[in-house]
Design a protein that fits this description.
The structure holds 2 protein chains of 2 kinds.
Chain A (H helix, E strand, L loop, with lengths): L2 H20 L13 H30 L9 H36 L7 H20 L24 H31 L12 H33 L12 H35 L6 H14 L15 H13 L1 H17 L6 H23 L2 H7 L3 H26 L1 H4 L5 H27 L16 H26 L41 H4 L3 H7 L13 E5 L6 E6 L6 H17 L3 H22 L8 E5 L2 E4 L8 H30 L13 H25 L3 H28 L8 H32 L9 H30 L1
Antiparallel strand pairs in A: 1-2, 3-4
Helix pairs in contact in A: 2-3, 2-4, 2-16, 3-4, 3-5, 3-7, 4-5, 4-19, 5-6, 5-19, 5-21, 6-7, 6-8, 6-21, 7-10, 7-13, 8-10, 11-13, 11-15, 13-15, 15-16, 19-20, 21-24, 21-25, 22-23, 22-25, 23-24, 24-25
Chain B lengths: L16 H22 L1 H4 L3 H29 L14 H32 L6
Classes of the chains: A mainly alpha, B mainly alpha.
Chain lengths: ~850, ~130
């Protein structure tokens, strides 16, 4: 046998094993897959289905408004329809679709086999599905939320809001958890799992955008979670956070909602623009012009978008100087946004553009978005906003922004990336028809709304009289909506029916240059082998790369130990650091999502016992997941990944992806906590005496609690250090001391407001103190569970001085908890004394 | 040994310095105005003091952004090389980071001025 033949046999055996390791189960067990292409596809299809559902609701709205004095829908049902339309489009389509696209595309774009936490991705998807069905399903029981997609109190805290408000709050909180999970997954994936050599100056722009967006999610979603918590405490237990009669203020909700809500617009917009940043260079046939400018725009928009939230509140009577700060920031954000548009135009001018279907959608989207951006500059001006506030002008503006800035680019992405799903192409003819129907239909629908709005038509009215000059504008909008609907329907038909008859075509029909086009749709391993990247457009500039990768010439071409593996590289220069073993197929993701889902659903209906039992089941599921799926001690220290490179199989502390995931999660958690503290000081600001003359928790118990939390922190950090030095017994003892102190600290924390007889339903002051203290105590309790987990791992021999990622991650958790305790007890204990 | 700033400038964080300064400046203006207008007796100072304070705080904010820009300009080797900085080398990666940081400093500089401008024109807590 010649050397070549031997090599051939080797690679074919290698390939077989790799395929087996990455294969999905068959039959109904298919649904336990965690592979990123599967999860991404399910995620995307589900989000699309929700979009179509919400689109139908939008058509119902248009049907009702087609003629004056219409009685097609009742006022109550109309309220449910438009509330759900907005809610579903924003929470169940716009944000999740980008998570879906990212989970589907990112690994192959970065040259990774998988994202670092595939099971977390699957868990996120199942949570999203359950929460989404729950929220959408409510309308069939006449129980949908009906107070507008931003749920303003006092309307939404009133009895009129019914159970719909609870469904909104709890269903969406559940989905927000999924979004945070996706953010963790994406940040760690982009920073640590890029192919060797893919330095930050040559990573795909899509990854740059997604990194920024995931970071924004981390700071934008937690304020809403905090707001949901306060809101639900008021609805369930009558804690008066938004009730002015007992010291509360409905404006606090508006602040928390829009601190989330405005960045969210950019969280939606940036990933869609990221798709354009991948598509436009391909069809211009040249690298993007102004790569660094795009990074400037993404980072700049990411930051500035957090200084815009009050521009939704211009009409609430805040001091004019406050409004002016936000107006200024709203104008400033137009700069980076404009930069992106110019970069795209410049790239098109510098290349030779091929007007394919993705390009049509991309350019149509840009045209629509620019128009929405211009009306955005108008409504960012306070005096104009006072005229246009809550009119159809704003409805027109937001649809121009969202449909131009998000829906059209997503359709461009669908047409562009479709061949990666199964090698088939979408129909050119249908695509052209769909684009023109959508583009024309969209403008006929939404352009007249500018005029209707300027003529004074308010948002959210279920009907209107015929003599105000709004009737023909509305009829036009409705006709346009039908045209838009036909266009979308054509795409749905193309995706579901037409493609089955299509033959399999080329996988890279556009001659695109980025790495994701190397992937083979029928293979589940992501990359046959992981190449070294030396260009922003490796398929254009690294000749023969695709063949080398597919032959298995590059890194990690095998799975000899039968484990799913991918490479971990350094943040800036992407130098290989570790072979990461990722989780495979499992039921535990579904079980965890279902049990957590039941907790939220049961809370909606106030089934306390069900909720409690399910909560315990969720905890057990998570512990089982962690115990069996993480922190394995590998059978050897290092592994040969080919080409003479050998990498460690285990990492802990800063070098491990788990540590980063904990860090990122706790940053998000800290933001939610910060929002509650914001609430405390908000109430202090608006009241002459914010305690309402009621007694506080005193100084003794808060300081006691702080001391005990500090002791728990010190013991945990000490345990980490002595364990590292090999004193395992001492480490275990310290963990026990830490857990006992933490438990005592939780008790002392609650004793403060308890012994002072603070009644949270009496006034907002005791309520906000209780919330802060409970938040901290819950973190202490979770910390105890973590400490006990570490102890068990140590006793079971699964955590050793060398393999210590558990205690390192838990110590990190305790750093954050210590800061939480410092702030909480400092604020509730000392601040009232200082006044 | 512990350092306030990491000794090697090789970090992704330098990119965010200027926008973080913008954010802190913005928060100072917003919180200052909110407390001044909601609790006029708390500090016992007139609104003009707030306007002056915003003016004063804007100076160090702009200077810090300029420092960040200068460091970035140096990292970019004073523009001796033109973009796109897409070589697979450490040097090009550093040039890219320097250039992007410089651009962000420019944006942040403008944004800080935008934020401070209202204090120039608005003279009282009218609603």
């Amino acid at each position: 046998m010649s050397a070549d033949e031997m090599h051939g046999q080797d690679t074919s055996a290698e390939e077989k094993q790799l395929r087996a390791v990455w294969s999905n189960p068959s039959g109904w067990r298919y649904w336990t897959s965690v592979n990123n292409t599967e999860v991404g596809l399910w995620y995307g299809s589900t989000a699309f289905a929700f979009m179509l559902f919400a689109g139908l609701l939008g058509l119902l709205v248009r049907a009702q408004l087609a003629v004056p004095e219409n009685d097609l829908l009742s006022a109550e049902f109309y309220n449910q329809v438009y509330t759900l339309h907005g809610t579903v489009m924003m929470f169940l389509f716009a944000v999740p679709i980008f998570e879906a696209v990212a989970i589907f595309l990112l690994p192959s774009m970065l040259g990774a086999r998988e994202l670092p936490f595939p099971r977390l991705g699957a868990f996120g998807f199942w949570s999203f599905l359950i929460g989404g069905v729950f929220v959408c399903g409510s309308i069939f029981f006449n129980a949908a939320p009906n107070a507008g997609w931003f749920m303003y109190p006092p309307l939404a805290t009133s009895e009129q809001a019914g159970i719909g408000a609870d469904i909104w709050l709890l269903g969406l909180s559940f989905i927000e958890v999924a979004s945070l999970a996706a953010a963790v997954e994406l940040i760690v994936g982009i920073m640590k799992c890029r192919a060797p050599g893919m330095r930050v100056n040559i990573m795909p722009l899509f990854a740059w955008y997604l990194l920024i967006v995931a970071g924004m999610i981390l700071f934008a979603f937690p304020p809403l979670i905090a707001g949901d918590l306060l809101f639900e405490m008021q609805r369930m237990f009558d804690w008066p956070f938004f009730d002015p009669e007992r010291g509360g203020d409905p404006l606090l909700w508006q602040h928390l909602f829009w601190i989330f809500g405005h960045p969210e617009v950019y969280i939606i917009f940036l990933p869609a623009i990221a798709l354009l940043a991948m598509i436009i260079p391909t069809f211009a046939g040249r690298p993007i012009v102004g790569y660094s400018w795009i990074v400037l725009a993404a980072v700049g928009t990411g930051f500035l978008s957090f200084g815009l939230w009050v521009h939704h509140m211009f009409a609430t009577g805040l001091p004019q100087i406050s409004l002016a700060f936000f107006s200024a920031a709203s104008e400033a954000v137009a700069i980076p946004t404009g930069v992106q548009i110019f970069v795209f135009v410049a790239t098109m001018l510098a290349g030779r553009v091929v007007f394919s279907i993705p390009m049509l959608f991309a350019m149509g989207g840009i045209a629509i978005f620019v128009m929405g951006g211009l009306t955005g500059v108008m409504v960012a001006l306070v005096p104009f906003d006072w005229q246009a506030h809550d009119t159809y002008f704003v409805v027109a503006h937001l649809h121009y922004v969202l449909i131009g800035g998000m829906l059209f680019p997503v359709f461009a992405g669908l047409y562009y990336y479709y061949p990666l799903i199964d090698g088939k192409h979408m129909s050119e003819r249908v695509g052209r028809f769909a684009f023109w129907m959508m583009f024309v239909g969209f403008n006929i629908t939404f352009f007249p709304m500018h005029i209707a709005g300027l003529r004074g038509m308010p948002r959210r009215v279920f009907t209107y009289p015929g003599d105000l000059g709004w009737d023909w504008l509305n009829l036009m909008s409705t006709m346009g909506a039908v045209v838009l609907g036909i266009g979308m329907f054509a795409v749905v038909v193309d995706v579901t029916l037409h493609r089955r008859r299509q033959p399999r075509g080329e996988v890279n029909p556009w001659n695109a240059g980025t790495l994701e086009w190397i992937s083979e749709p029928e293979e589940k391993w992501g990359m046959r082998s992981i190449p070294r990247i030396t260009s922003r457009y490796p398929l254009w500039h690294q000749k023969g790369l695709a063949e080398e990768v597919k032959r298995g010439d590059w890194y990690l071409p095998h799975a000899r130990e039968g484990r799913r593996e991918t490479l971990v590289t350094s943040v800036l220069d992407a130098e290989p650091e570790q072979v990461l073993r990722v989780g495979g197929t499992s039921y535990i993701t579904i079980i965890s999502a279902v049990t957590l889902g039941i907790v939220f659903v049961a809370l909606t209906f106030k089934w306390w016992m069900v909720s409690l039992v399910s909560g315990v089941a969720f905890l057990v599921a998570i512990l089982y997941w962690l115990w069996t799926g993480t922190g394995h001690i590998p059978e050897k220290e290092e592994k040969d990944v080919g080409r003479g490179l050998s990498l460690p199989l285990y990492a802990s502390g800063v070098k491990s992806v788990g540590w980063w995931a904990m860090f990122i999660t706790m940053v998000g958690d800290g933001t939610a906590f910060g929002s509650l503290v914001f609430g405390y000081f908000f109430f202090w600001t608006i009241h002459q005496d914010f305690t309402g003359g009621l007694s506080g928790p005193g100084v003794f118990w808060p300081m006691m609690a702080l001391g005990l939390f500090a002791a728990a922190w010190a013991a945990t950090v000490g345990a980490r250090e002595v364990n590292r030095r090999g004193y395992v017994g001492l480490a275990r003892a310290l963990i026990v001391i830490g857990a006992v102190s933490a438990l005592a600290g939780c008790g002392a924390a609650l004793a403060g407001p308890w012994t002072s007889g603070m009644d949270p339903t009496a006034h907002v002051y005791p309520a906000i103190v209780w919330v802060l203290v409970i938040w901290t105590a819950v973190h202490g309790a979770v910390g105890v569970i973590m400490q006990v987990y570490c102890l068990a791992r140590s006793l079971a021999g699964r955590m050793t001085p060398r393999h210590d990622m558990e205690i390192r991650n838990v110590a990190l958790y305790w750093h954050f908890t210590l800061v939480t305790a410092l702030i909480t007890f400092g604020v509730v204990g000392l601040f009232p004394e200082a006044l | 040994m512990w350092h306030l700033l990491p000794r090697e400038i090789e970090s992704l964080w330098t990119l965010f310095t200027a926008p973080v300064i913008w954010a802190l400046h913005f928060l100072f203006c917003y919180i200052g105005a909110a407390i001044f207008c909601e609790k006029p007796d708390f500090l016992g100072l007139s609104f003009n003091n707030l306007r002056v304070a915003i003016g004063i705080i804007t100076v160090p904010a702009l200077i810090m952004i300029l420092v960040s820009a200068t460091l970035a300009w140096r990292q970019w080797e004073f523009g001796t090389d033109d973009p796109p900085h897409d070589d697979p080398s450490r040097r090009d990666r550093l040039l890219f980071q320097g250039y992007a940081t410089l651009l962000l400093s420019g944006l942040s500089f403008v944004a800080v001025i935008f934020t401070a401008l209202p204090a120039l024109f608005i003279t009282e807590c009218i609603r």
